[in-house]
Amino acid sequence: MIKLEEVDKYVESRFQRVFILKNINLTFNQGEFITLMGPSGVGKSTLLNIIGLLDQEYEGKYSFDGNSIRGMKEKQRSALHKAEFGYIFQAYHLIDELTVYENIETPLLYRNVSSQERKSIIAELLDRFQMVAKKDLFPEQLSGGQQQLVGVARAIAGKPKVLLADEPTGNLHSVQAKEIMEVFQELNKEGTTIIQATHARENADFGTRLIEMLDGKIANDIRI
Amino acid sequence: MLKNYLLIAFRNIKRNPLRTFVHIFGLALGVAVCTVVFHVVYHENSFDTFHQDSDRIYQVNTTTSFLGEAATNGGVPVPLAQVIEDEVSGIEQKTFFYTLWDVNVRNPETDYWYPNHTQVTYADPALLQMFPREWLAGNPKTALQDLNQVVLTESVASKFFPEQSPNQIIGKFLEYFFLDTLTVQVAGVVADFEEKSDFVFTDFLSIGNFYQERNIDFYNVEQWDNVNSSSQLFLKLSEGKTPKDLTPDFERLIAKYLASEEGIATQFSLLPLSELHFNQNFDRPGASRVVLYGLIVIGGIILLLASLNFINLETAQSILRAKEVGIRKTLGSSRTQLIFQSITETGLLVVLSIGAGIAGCEFLTVYFHDFLPSDMVINYSSSESLMFVTGLFLILTIFSGIFPALLLSAYSPKKTLSRDLKVPQGFSFGYFIQRNLTVVQFAFSIAFVVAVLTVSSQVDFLTNKELGFDREQILYVRLPYSSVTPEGKRTLQTAINQQSFVQQSSFASDMLASSGIWTSIVEVRALSDKPQLSVQVKAIDENFMDLFGVEIVQGQNLSTHSKQLLINETLYQQLSNIQKTDIIGGILNYGEEEYEVAGVVPNVHTRTLRESILPMIFHYRPTNSNTLNVKVSKGKNLTIAKSELDAVLQTHFPLETEGFRFFDRELESFYATDLKLTKILSMASFMAIVISLLGLFALTSFTIAKKTKEISIRKVLGASVLQLLVGITKSYVILISMAVLLGIIPAWLLLDLWLSEFAYRIPMPFHLFAIAGIFLSLLALMIVSIHGLKVAHKNPSEVLKIE
Questions:
Q1: Among candidate residues A140, A192, A198, A133, the one with its CA nearest the CA of residue A162
Q2: Beta-carbon neighbour count of residue B419 at 10 Å?
Q3: How high is the pLDDT of residue B382?
């Protein structure tokens, strides 16, 4: 489904090119649960941004379902972005001014989902994550684990094929982290492709494939 | 979606009260000023727009040029009205009327007098056809066709004949007393105009009476070379004709009827009805386009400043919203949607500001009371009001909102969502705009302040300048020409002189100084070629100079019963340049008569100080002089003196409702417009300063807070509070100095232009410029320091712990 060929990303500094990613060749299939692992600064987030179409400044080929991303127009790219990807962040990144309910609703608004349908999707998600009672609270009134659950709910509200998670458990303690990972596993079983970046080894155990990165390169690619 | 945007906007408004207050207060000020200005402009432009075919109606004006000086008069020579339709083609209809002033009316049935009934005119029937009114009684076809008829408007009809229906009034008699005395019969009653109109006439007398034999000389009915602004001619042009089409015919007409004299030229021009309100008409001063434009400019500047404030602050704060933008973008929002969201938020703030601004209008109308047309009423729910508000909303929202929206929506999610968001290095457009907008705002503030200080010190100078005569304890009254006989004047003067507090009284054509001017020509008889000199004229009596405390510097004062005149030093100088013989005792021809120069008076300022002193003659002619000047003794309260003199006046002229006036008030009124200018500029500069300081306050509270970490580190490294403060304010000092320069230079040029209108003026007050600059700089620095001190006093251990 996702194919990266010879992807390079670098910044020009005064005297030399500093590579953040170098010669990345990867193929991800539908239904996989991939864990990108490595110390911080190794290029995991950068790779996720490229896959998630948030970063266009790289060299090499990237195709999604056989269509080259470079060949797409801005409009097509943005449609693909909306339809296929969901994002989860380490710092949750909920909109502070919106309630739990409204945060989950936002991506649906950008997808022109009818009001009736929105209500039922959100009700279902709140129910699934046991947050019905918290739907009118603001992010700052929730614990970190709860905020991240809202983040997950928001990410999957639009029913994306691919879920991208950048250090989803980085700000959580172990019990909360495990909870989130279990949710991921469940989603994966339902058919969602998940790509997560992490430096916690235990998170990889929930996935189907572990890719270890070092200095912008793929060091290891193991199926679990 | 819109609901979501509004929700966020509303929560943001609540969350950041300082930002909300600054935005709404600033914009509301701008909105209030603009709303008042709009209504003034609309009001002044809505006169006489409702008449049928009003775009084809024109007033005929007469321009007379004499020795290179042209003067335009709203009236025409009377005979023009009779020949115009034969001589000029392209006219569908014409109406001629002759306005009258100081008319006293008597209802013979009740023997009730209505003195000073001002809005009376002789009118032909066409006047009521070109400017049609609803007829409540009488026959529009026959009314005013015969002699001795009058058509009344409903309002005066009910005044003259209370509690009688219009039909009952028809055929009743009224007596009109002015130069003529007419007994007329009511031939019709018409409704008053409900819309705004300069055609304020309430009594229309048959024009036939105007043309009667006995009036021919009096009204100059047959004279082409006499133009009185009372004699009014209006034309309705045929469809498709423009004033230009009539020019050749007018030229032919002038050549045919007006004797050509050297140095004198007459021209007729057509003034569109829509312009009538902006020209002096029917004895009311015209509305001033210049004042309107001035108001528009000031309103625009205040609104612009408020808008700049908004842009400035939003740009500075955009970094706070960057995270939200990043999230929204990853959630699938397009840039257009983000721009729309940001503009929606601006729109909401603008709506609130407009609400607050309109509430503020009421305060402004009180403050601006003497600028606003007295008959203006603001109707906030009228269609033009609503259209204006809608337009203002759209313009403000888009102008203020678009730049922050573009900036905000450009943030890339990749950057905003990574752990720390830094101010970009190198050139940043947002930062650049921010600093410059602050400079622009302060420049405007400085310019306004400098203007206020300069204008008010010039006005001060004008009102305090030594004019060369005594202005204290003087009262005057202008008696109507129509009702005064020489005996009447004499007995009045005697009665006034008998008052114990009256020191001196004098009949003259005018006061020593007034806004009126009378110019003429004298011939020097001593020289063979009889050179002509253009002079200003006042007719006086022997007490005049003494009353105003002016001493004769050469020769003697006028003696009674003499053909003598006094000249001022300017004329003396002119004469001594051409005349070798003695000037005192020499003869000047003035009018048809010869006058002996009795003495010379010093140059006194008889006009506003805008004008330099003209050569002048004061000739002895108390008989035709109807202004009575009275000098009251020192200890006497002038207001009490006025009421006592009014009582004396009342016994001699019972129909005279205008009493004595204060001479020094007349002098003050010379500079009424300048005082108004001071007032309006004060208001504008106050608002500009408030808006700029508020903006600076909010902006620095934000930008300095961002530097908290840097300042804490410096403090840890050993910087003192003073050093920190210097560091923080340094860049602001540069900005403000730029603003001072940017503001002062254009203000200086404009003020120089304004001052040059005055013959007597202060030197450009650069010291005031400096004071204004320093004052505003200090104010600005104070505001920066408030925030700076707060940050500098923070405990660095707390700040750095969080980081």
A1: A192
A2: 7
A3: 86
Query: CB within 8 A of A138, min separation 6: which ones?
Result: A96, A97, A98, A99, A100
Q: How confident is the model at residue B803, as a pLDDT?
A: 39
Average pLDDT (B767-780) is 90
Q: Is A107 in contact with B332 (Cβ distance < 8 A)?
A: yes
The residues on B that touch A, with CB distances below 8 Å, are: 1, 4, 7-8, 11-12, 15, 323-324, 326-334, 337, 412-414, 417-419
Residue B261 has pLDDT above 70, yes or no: no
Cβ proximity of B545 and B552 under 8 Å: yes
Between the alpha carbon of residue B137 and those of residues A203, B65, B122, B166, B167, the distances in Å are 100, 46, 20, 6, 5
C-alpha–C-alpha distance, residues B143 and B153, integer Å: 13
Residue A34: is its pLDDT beyond 80?
yes
Nearest chain B residue to A55 by CA: give it: B414
Kindly tell me the burial class for residue B284, based on how many C-beta atoms sit within 10 Å of its own C-beta (0-12, 13-18, 19 or more).
exposed
3-state secondary structure of A89: coil
The average pLDDT across B47-68 equals 85
Residue B263 has pLDDT above 70, yes or no: no
Q: What's the token pair of residue A190?
A: 């339902």
Q: CA B147, B149, B152: angle at the middle one, nearest 5?
A: 155
pLDDT score of B430: 64
Question: Please, is B262 exposed, middle or buried when counting C-beta atoms within 10 Å of its C-beta (0-12, 13-18, 19+)?
Answer: exposed
Residue type, A135: K
Residue of A nearest to B332 (CA): A82
ipTM: 0.83
Domains and CATH numbers, chain A: 2-223 (3.40.50.300)
Predicted pLDDT of residue B69: 66
Is pLDDT above 80 for A47?
yes
For residue B479, give the 3-state DSSP assignment. Answer: coil
DSSP calls for A40-52: TTSSHHHHHHHHT
Quote the pLDDT of residue B136: 92
Question: Would you call A1 exposed, middle or buried from its count of C-beta atoms within 10 A (0-12, 13-18, 19+)?
Answer: middle
When the pLDDT of each residue in chain B is averaged and rounded to a whole number, the result is 86
CA-based nearest residue in chain A for residue B322: A95
Q: What is the pLDDT of residues B695-726, one digit of tens each?
A: 888 888 878 877 888 888 888 787 888 888 88
Query: Could you say which of A93, A97, A154 has the minimum Cβ distance to residue B8?
Result: A97
Q: Give the gap in angstroms from C-alpha A207 to the nearest C-alpha of chain B.
A: 24
Specify the pTM. Answer: 0.77
Are the beta carbons of A54 and B413 separated by less than 8 Å?
Answer: yes
Pairing mode, if any, of strands B616-620 and B627-632?
unpaired
Query: Hey, are the CB atoms on A106 and B413 less than 8 Å from each other?
Result: no
CB B327 within 8 A of CB B2: no
Confidence of residue B190 (pLDDT cuts 50, 70, 90): very high
Of B335, B638, B307, B657, the closest CA to residue B477 belongs to B657
B423 has a pLDDT exceeding 60: no
- Residue of B12, B327, B414 with shortest CB distance to A93: B327
CB contact under 8 A, A154 and B331: yes
Query: What mean pLDDT comes out for the span B248-270?
Result: 82
CB pairs under 8 A between A and B: 57
Looking at chain A, which residue has its C-alpha nearest residue B419? A91
The rounded distance, in Å, linking the Cα atoms of B450 and A169 is 62
B4 and A102 within 8 Å at the Cβ level: the answer is: yes
Predicted confidence at residue B425, as pLDDT, reads 47
Out of A49, A89, A110, closest to residue B337 by CB? A110
Q: pLDDT per residue over B552-610, tens digit each? A: 998 889 888 778 999 999 999 988 888 888 888 888 988 778 899 999 999 999 888 88
Q: Tell me the mean pLDDT in the region A94-117.
A: 89
